[in-house]
Structure formats: C-alpha cells, structure tokens
TrEMBL record:
Heme b binds at residue 194. One of its GO terms (biological process) is response to oxidative stress. The record marks 63 as: Transition state stabilizer. This is Peroxidase.
Length: 318
C-alpha cells in the first residue's frame, strides 16, 4: 500500500513538472525551419543595417528584450501601443521616454511578413534581434530557441513593479532577479549587458553628485554633461567602451566607475564582489556565461501552442 502511494506521488510530481516546463519544451531552434527558412538571415541583415546606421541600436534592442521578458514573460507585450481602450507598457515609469527600438522592430517585422506572412511572432523576432545586436558588437553568439507567441494583453502595473530601478540596492536587485528564477551570479552576468549603450542623466545624477563609492575624476567628468538641475535627457556611456561588447563594464566597477548606482552595487563590499573581479579578468568567461543566461531569460514564461497569437503588426493585436 505504501509502495503504491509512493508511486502515485512520484507520478503526480512528474506530471506537474512536465506541465510546468511544457511551454519551454515547445521552443525549438528549428521551429521555423520549414515555415520561414530565411528568418535568421532576414533578422540579421536588418539588424546589421540598423546597427551600422546607429551603433547604439545593439544596446537598445537588448534592453527592449529585457524589459519585455521581465514583465510577464517574453511575449512582446512591451511592443503594444496604447489606444483609447488599451493601456500598454510603453508608458510605464521604467519605459516612458526611455525605451527605444520600436521602429527597428517595425522594419524587421515588415521584411519578415513579406517573406513569411502571419508566421513569425514579434516575440521571436525580438529575441533574435537582441542576440544579433550583441554579436554585431563583439559578443558571443547563442542559439535562440523559437516558437514564442505574442500576448494579446499587457500590464503597465507589472512593468512599474517588476523592473529594477537604476538606483536599486544589491538586496533589491537580488530579490527582483530571484523572483524571475535567477541566481545572484546570473544577476551579475546579465548586468554585463551594460557593457554597451548609454544612460540618461536623470538616471545617474544622484550617483555622481551624492555617492561616495565613486572615483572622483569619473564623477567630475560625468557632471560636465549632467548638471545638478536640467539636462535630464543628456547621455553618458554605461562603460568605457560603450560600442564594444566586452568585459570593460566589470573593470570599470572595480575602478569605481559604474555609471548607475545599481551597477556599482555589484562591487561595493557585498556578495558579488568576487564575481565582478573574476569577470573583469576573464572576458571569455563573461561572454560564455552571458550567452547562457540570455537563453535562460528567453525562456521566461513564453506563450506557446495556441496561447496568444502571431501579430501581423507588433504594435497592436490582430
């Protein structure tokens, strides 16, 4: 009797486990091999053109992917425009006047639709574009599992509550990432996305004028283009090589030249100091671990099967 009960419990646990992982199991690198065989080439060509026109696009698309996945999963909800009857995520506090890349997505989607009508989701296109941007700036490639579908809904409230702020403490960052299933080590490697791109003055003003764990010369340099008042939209590079995907971000943190307070928190006498120092000395390790963490992020709660839809226009539901 006890043996039968034990078998039943094990079978139940297995069934629950399979159900929980079924969404991820339906993602496959070959999902469009027959229905849209040129997809990867189309996305890569469009991203190459976009990055050549503006190097910052690589960072823009990477951030757009992160802001999508961290709010109810990688479902392209962040791309939906507000309407008179629909409130999306674009005007949430972390995104408003900050998130970009929507026109790039429109351009890629138009080319994909011309080749494979109503076949490829915006969520999958965004996942590929983020990967290609990293590779085009010198990062390591990774295989992108495909088969996500697009959400018919969005949540401005979730975007306001689930994305970390640029002034977050290490404890807050660890908690936010833990809520998404990431370890503290994965938080540290994914933060390395800030090795490319720029930030607005409004997001680092408090750090360069008030923090003490900052190199004096660095603070002085950044204040030149970020006054104590005004100039909120003025930009500064997130690390010393903002157009190259490398481990300079970590070297800058060790030198107390992190632009955002949330970045410097990773190297401030806390639990992630050793990991930051290790990545600052080992570029290959960072690039490898970042690629692996990006695959994991791309698996956050995807819509698959008959859930959601394949949008024809990424800005609105069908």
């Amino acid at each position: 009797m006890a043996s039968a009960a034990k078998f039943f419990c094990l079978a139940l646990l297995l069934a629950v486990s399979l159900l929980a992982s079924s969404g991820n199991a339906q993602l496959s690198a070959n999902f469009y091999a027959t229905s849209c065989p040129n997809l990867l080439t189309i996305v890569r060509n469009q991203m190459t053109q976009a990055v050549n026109n503006e190097l910052r696009v690589a960072a823009v698309m990477l951030r757009l992917f992160f802001h999508d996945c961290f709010v109810n999963g990688c479902d392209a909800s962040v791309l939906l425009d507000d309407t008179a009857t629909f409130t999306g995520e674009k005007n949430a506090a972390p995104n408003q006047n900050s998130l970009r890349g929507f026109v790039v997505m429109d351009n890629i989607k138009t080319r994909v639709e011309a080749a494979c009508n109503a076949t490829v989701s915006c969520a999958d296109i965004l996942a590929l574009a983020a990967r290609d941007g990293v590779v085009l700036r010198g990062g390591q490639s990774w295989t992108v599992p495909l088969g996500r579908r697009d959400a018919r809904t969005a949540s401005q409230a979730a975007a306001n509550n689930q994305l970390p702020a640029p002034g977050s403490s290490l404890a807050t960052l660890v908690n936010v990432f833990s809520n998404k299933g990431f370890t503290a080590s994965e938080l540290t490697v994914l933060s390395g996305a800030h090795t490319i791109g720029q930030a607005r003055c409004t997001n680092f003003r408090s750090r360069i004028y008030n923090d003490t764990n900052i190199a004096a010369a660095f603070a002085t340099t950044r204040r030149a283009n970020c006054p104590a008042t005004g100039g909120d939209a003025n930009l500064a590079p997130l690390d010393s090589t903002p157009n190259r995907f490398d481990n300079t971000y970590y070297s800058d943190l060790v030198a107390r030249r992190g632009l955002l307070r949330s970045d410097q928190e990773l190297f401030n006498g806390g639990s992630q100091d050793a990991a930051v120092r290790a990545y600052s000395n080992d570029s290959a390790s960072f690039l490898r671990d970042f690629a692996a963490a990006m695959v994991k992020m791309g698996n956050l709660s995807p819509l698959t099967g008959t859930s959601g839809e394949v949008r024809r226009n990424c800005r609105r539901i069908n």
